[in-house]
Amino acid sequence: MNDPLFNYVKKEMDEIRIPEDKLDFAIENAIKRGRKKWKLGKKIVYFSGAAIILCCLFISSAFVSPAMAKVVSKVPYLGQIFESKDVITVIDEKLREKGYNISSIGIGYQPKKTIEVSLKGEDYFNEVKDDIKKIIMATLKSKGYDAYLVRVNKMVPKNDYVLNKKEIEEKSTLENEVIKKLKHLDYTFNMVQVDPVEKKIFINIEGSEKYFKSIQDSVEKTALEVANANKYKGYRISAMRTTVKVTKVDKGAQIIPTIAEGLMSKKEYKVTGVSYKSKPLTFIIRTSILSSDPTAKTLGTEIETIIVEFLASKKISSILDNESYEIIVNGKDNEKIN
Fold first, then answer.
1. Which pTM value belongs to this model?
2. pLDDT, tens only, 269-302
3. CA separation for the pair 191, 177 (Å, rounded)
4. Cβ-based neighbour number of residue 325 at 10 Å
5. What is the dihedral of CA 197, 200, 204, 205, to 10 degrees?
6. What pLDDT is attached to residue 7?
């Protein structure tokens, strides 16, 4: 297996002495299990024979052997996060596996870092809210995340307004008449939508920016004339040009979610915001510490070191493809501390 991390771990493990009784136990269990599929982060790795034994020893020894714990600790912190699912996905899957009916789950950072779960139904909410909160807290603890509040809320249903018969007729009439008129005038558009409650007509014009600007006023005037002619007064017209542009995800967008989760999930880093600029590639970290604080420089340097270590890893360096970057760690007063 030509995997630097695997080879490194194997080399370190070769130097660890395992008591014979534990070695026999691990080998016996590995043989009983036979060929097995292990899922490690986003990779599927197949082990058989001695490799199964190696994996068993790695997993069991990591919890009892100080030497093994040292090996695990050498895997970059942000690298571990990059190779795994994000924390919200992990929590969501764990809750659904246990049979909980979750309406929504999300994470917010303002005003406080909070993981929030919504549940439907008064009785169901009261029955499971405490258990769900315990599961989330345990999951966060297992990842070493201590910066989040956890809230389990009862979902408040939002009833969409239903148009009455008169409003449905008004909407249908205006949409058909405006479309007919715009086509007759040979305007290029792809949408006419009428909101009889808010008294608005939305028209999306197709074509270049120059074309849009040349006909926008005329299109709005035409739609208003149609509304007035049909005795529907008080309408406002909005002609717009909305285009969908598919772009390749840039390098920063592939990297920043991992940096954000890793730094914002632990209190020790005091990180309140993570962002980036594409040109030139710049990672900007905001913290809650004042630049005048005697420990600010140390914290800023530690955060920068964690990010540099991550960016230098094999997978991330292949994404960066030798592109230079800058890391800015700012204090609460927006002064650079690294």
1. 0.57
2. 999 999 999 889 999 999 999 999 999 999 999 9
3. 13
4. 17
5. 160
6. 52
Instruction: Point out the least confidently predicted range of 160-164, 169-173, 192-196.
Output: 160-164
Taking phi over 0 as left and psi of -120 to 50 as alpha, with beta for the rest, 199 belongs to: left
The token duo for 155 is 């979902």
For residue 24, what is the enclosing H or E element? helix 20-33
Count of C-beta atoms within a 10 Å radius of residue 31? 11
Mean pLDDT estimate for the chain: 82
| 193 token code pair | 């939508």
CA dist 9 and 23 (Å) reads: 18
Q: What is the mean pLDDT of residues 305-322?
A: 93
Sequence letter at residue 123: D
CB-based contacts of 265: which residues, under 8 Å, 6+ apart?
A: 87, 113, 140, 143, 144, 145, 146, 147, 148
The span from the CA of 203 to the CA of 273, in Å, is: 38
- State the residue for tokens 């764990």: 94
Give CA–CA dist 338/330, Å, rounded: 8
**Two tokens at 277?**
């600029």
Identify which of 24, 8, 27, 19 has the alpha carbon closest to the alpha carbon of residue 70: 8
**What are the structure tokens assigned to 327, written together?**
């890391």
